[in-house]
Each structure stands twice: as C-alpha cells, then as structure tokens.
Amino acid sequence: MASHSSALPHRTDLLTSLNTDHHRLGLNVFLFIVLAHWAEHVAQAIQIYVLGWPVPQARGVLGLPFPWLVTSEWMHYGYALLMLVGLIVLRRGFTGRARTWWTVALGIQVWHHLEHLLLLLQALTGNNLLGRPVPTSVVQLLVPRVELHLFYNAVVFAPMVVAMWLHRRPRSEERARMNCDCAAVPA
To answer: Where are the transmembrane segments (predicted)?
Structure first.
C-alpha cells in the first residue's frame, strides 16, 4: 500500500485501486501478459527465420500443442482487446512524461485493435478485404502478417517500456502528482 494512502479517502472501486494502491501490481501483471504474448511472436519468428519452418507450421510455443490458437481470429482479437483495456485502465496511474509515453502506446494499440476487429469481422462474415482468400488487415496488404504483428507488438511495447521506466523514476514534480507507490525511492 502506498505510504500516502492515509491522506487519501478510502477508495474501494477496482479502477481507482488499480491506479493507486495496486498500480504496481496491475502493471506487473499486465507486463507479464504482454511479455508472454511477445515471446510467442518471437518464438514464431525463430521457427520461421532461424529453423526454416514454413509459416503454417510456425505457431510459436503454445500454438504447437494447440494449433487453433494461431488460427483463431477470436483469440487474436481477444488479446488485442485485452491490451487496449489494460492500457486504458492503467493510464490514470501515470503522470507527466510517463503518461505521455503510455498514451502513445495506447494510441498505437487503438489502431492495432481496429486491425484485429477488421480481421475478426472478415472471419465471421466470410467477406475478406479486397476478395482475399483469408482475412486480411489494411497494413497486411503491404506487409506479411507474421512480420506485421511483430512490428505492431514492438511499436506498442517500446513506448510502454519507456512509460514504465519513467514512471519508476519520476521527476520531483511528477512524483508529487503520483497516487501510487511505483516510484523508486529517491537517492
């Protein structure tokens, strides 16, 4: 619990708790989920580019025993939605420069989410973009899906990491506005 919490009114709602007394826990759980997903994409890239597996057989780690995970647009959409919700829910706990970087990650994830929504709608309706044989996102018209999702995950993850780094090391004016105990103790 944050040392400043005695000065704040008792807060019981989950969103407030996740951005005050439990912000660090929320960020750590969210980061674990993001890293696990990122590891799946990296494993898939290694299977393709290092081990020389054909793309349909390169399914990451969990996709090998559970191949439906890779082909399920619902699963991909669900993860994109989870990322979007996590970025929105945990945003209130950030201040200053960290909030700016977190907002950048959120903005990029909004687009990533819309791309997955487009893929899901195509899978559900059978009407694929520009008559393609499989569901296709807008940017996928230019970049293959494996590489595109590596890119999307990287460009959302990078500003997230910057935000978390700055959040743990705030300037004095940022620290004064924080409602959580995520900041490292000043030297």
So the answer is: 29-54, 74-90
| CA gap 173, 171 in Å, rounded | 6
pTM score above 0.85: yes
Domain boundaries, the chain: 10-177
Closest listed residue to residue 87, CA positions, set 40, 39, 165, 26: 26
Report the C-alpha gap between 98 and 104 in whole angstroms.
10
Tokens of residue 145, six digits: 């899906």
